[in-house]
Design goal:
The chain is α+β, with helices and mostly antiparallel strands. About 25% of the residues lie in helices and about 40% in strands. The protein has a seven-stranded antiparallel sheet, with helices on one face. The radius of gyration is 14 Å and the shape is globular. The model has no long low-confidence stretch (mean pLDDT about 95).
Length: about 120
């Protein structure tokens, strides 16, 4: 069953802001302000990879796959007012409560960067 974590978002990040944040975390972006792909740490042996698209209204949607401690897949959407990550597949041994806590902490940190007026 999917696991969804939602966090309030003050404003949508711009593509240059996402590029800067990606560089800080060694995430490579191949694409444009409309669509593309991403990977961490390198495209040949990614621990995380995915795709994104940016709608005309600024909403960002995408999917990802991670192979850190087993296969973890999901989708994300950044809309005016909130960010939502849905995990569609997770490693059997990874407790849902731990995953939800880690996602919530990461989203809180991310969303704090994009409060209104920043």
């Amino acid at each position: 069953m999917p696991l969804t974590v939602t966090q309030p978002l003050g404003r949508l990040p711009t593509f240059p802001e996402l590029q800067d944040l990606a560089r800080q975390h060694e995430v490579g972006i191949n694409g444009s302000e409309q669509a593309g792909s991403f990977h961490h740490p390198d495209p040949e042996h990614p621990k995380v990879k995915g795709h994104y698209s940016i709608e005309q209204n600024g909403e960002i949607r995408g999917d990802f796959t991670s192979n850190l401690i087993g296969k973890l897949t999901g989708t994300f959407v950044f809309k005016a007012g909130f960010v939502e990550i849905t995990i569609t597949e997770k490693p059997f041994l990874l407790p849902e409560a731990v995953l939800k806590l880690k996602l919530t902490e990461a989203l809180e940190e991310f969303c704090a960067r994009f409060s209104p007026g920043t």
